[in-house]
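Q: Given only this backbone (428 positions), what sequence would you predict?
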């Protein structure tokens, strides 16, 4: 590990210790520090992207298409898989340690003793980094919810809400209506609000009406038409025909791509994008850990699915792959997630479970996960290991060349498997 990496790690460890709680749902402290930092993104066109699933893919499409059109783009996403630097990309490249450390130092000076969570502190640092880098556009992914998420201090020129489903119930509420209410607060008066959820909760529509947003609904204001080899985007005033299927795999990626195209249509007078840029962006967008299929045999798939909706999408994608004699799962989840719902959804698609513990205070033990799997999956073949790396090695040993391995359940699980597979440098 070189000196700069050590310094970045030391900063991140310091930031983690600043607040007594990892999540503090409020914006007053963040806004106060942002004012002292004089963060100004008004020179850029900003896209704020929220939702339960599909946020990362939609951000990846926006970033790739805009860069293909020749724009200088900043992309902020979370969480990261292998390196913190993945959270902040400019021009398609993760920023280096020194650029992040300079912004951490600025936030540390400006906070003047104010307690900030890890996410709040690092969000402020990355927003300030983007404000000082002459961007044409900034694509910002909401971390948790929307209304009280630190990214929501930014008044986006365009908001995108992907799907709304049950997750983070301890912070957002137990129903789609409650969660939709929180997520829809990224909308702004008179500005486009793109909603790609096919059946958004009523609260999403109510918030949009109350704040006076320019609401774009899938099926009413924009749509997609899939064909065998290509697809069409149909917008309010713009049609894009003969588009290639995206490089990102998965049954929902056309929906995510259409949401990105609706957002671009909504700001087309300020950020025009050619048909060729759209085609190039669709074909070059990358997002590790989202039904990512590695080359070689046996087939190995990485997917960060960790809630019921994402698990159902994973099963659909596995079914679309065709026949494999056996499917081995390498599995680990956080214990505050709905493990039972995820396991019940995926169980019919799995022949052998290789279960490892998930690290961190919220992590579930392999033994606890294994016991639950044996309960919900009946006579399933469930094997537990001291680590995800050991579980992955055992899956490879038990696997035939024509079988497949799917690694899923958490960003942490996929990250450990990536490191064990020799992918420890970067995923950007």
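A: Predicted residues:
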């Amino acid at each position: 590990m070189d000196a700069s990496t050590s310094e970045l790690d030391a900063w991140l460890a310091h930031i983690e210790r600043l607040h007594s709680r990892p999540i503090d749902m409020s914006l007053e402290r963040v806004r106060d520090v942002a004012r002292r930092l004089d963060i100004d993104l008004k020179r850029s066109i900003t896209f704020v992207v929220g939702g339960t699933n599909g946020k990362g893919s939609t951000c990846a499409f926006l970033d790739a298409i805009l860069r293909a059109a020749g724009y200088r783009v900043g992309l902020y996403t979370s969480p990261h898989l292998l390196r913190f630097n993945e959270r902040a990309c400019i021009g398609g490249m993760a920023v280096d340690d020194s650029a992040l450390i300079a912004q951490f130092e600025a936030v540390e000076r400006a906070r003047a003793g104010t307690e900030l969570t890890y996410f709040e502190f690092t969000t402020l640092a990355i927003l300030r980094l983007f404000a000082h880098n002459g961007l044409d556009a900034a694509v910002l992914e909401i971390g948790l919810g929307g209304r009280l998420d630190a990214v929501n201090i930014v008044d986006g020129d365009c908001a995108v809400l992907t799907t709304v489903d049950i997750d983070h119930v301890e912070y957002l509420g137990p129903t789609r209506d409650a969660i939709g209410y929180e997520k829809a607060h990224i909308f702004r008066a008179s500005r486009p609000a793109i909603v790609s959820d096919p059946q958004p909760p009523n609260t999403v529509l109510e918030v949009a009406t109350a704040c006076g947003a320019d609401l774009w609904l899938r099926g009413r204001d924009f749509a997609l038409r899939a064909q065998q080899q290509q697809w069409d985007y149909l917008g309010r005033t713009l049609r894009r025909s003969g588009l290639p299927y995206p490089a990102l795999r998965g049954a929902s990626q056309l929906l995510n791509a259409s949401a990105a195209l609706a957002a671009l249509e909504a700001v087309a007078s300020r950020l025009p994008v050619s048909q060729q840029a759209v085609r190039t962006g669709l074909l070059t967008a990358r997002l590790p850990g989202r039904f990512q299929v590695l080359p070689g045999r046996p087939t190995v798939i990485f997917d960060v699915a960790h809630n019921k909706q994402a698990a159902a999408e994973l099963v659909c994608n596995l079914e679309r792959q065709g026949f494999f004699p056996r499917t081995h799962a390498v599995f680990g989840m956080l214990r505050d997630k709905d493990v039972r719902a995820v396991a019940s959804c995926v169980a019919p698609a799995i022949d052998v479970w290789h279960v490892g513990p998930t690290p961190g205070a919220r992590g579930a033990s392999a033994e606890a996960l294994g016991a639950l799997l044996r309960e919900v999956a009946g006579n399933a073949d469930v094997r537990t290991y001291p680590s995800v790396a050991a579980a992955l090695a055992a899956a490879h040993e038990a696997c035939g060349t024509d079988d497949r391995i799917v690694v899923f359940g958490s960003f942490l699980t996929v990250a450990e498997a990536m490191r064990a597979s020799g992918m420890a440098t970067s995923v950007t």
